[in-house]
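Materials and Methods. Structural model of YXWGXW repeat-containing protein. The 70-residue sequence of YXWGXW repeat-containing protein from Pseudomonas jessenii was retrieved and submitted for structure prediction as follows.
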Amino acid sequence: MSRNLKTLLAASLVAITLSGCIVEPVRPHRPPPPVEVVPVMPAPGYHWVAGHYRWDGREWRWAPGHWRAY
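The predicted structure was written out as tokens:
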């Protein structure tokens, strides 16, 4: 093979290999959860769903806890 063909082949293989790479942006670490005060159960048949952080694409947002009927 000629040198130009080998160079072209090598460059093509590198391009194909790197085209499958996914670069994900770096997220900051999730902050520690704030202290939640659990209010009194509204009625029998409810359970507490603890609050948690959600990533909104730019920053961590706190979703507060709530009571849910089951």
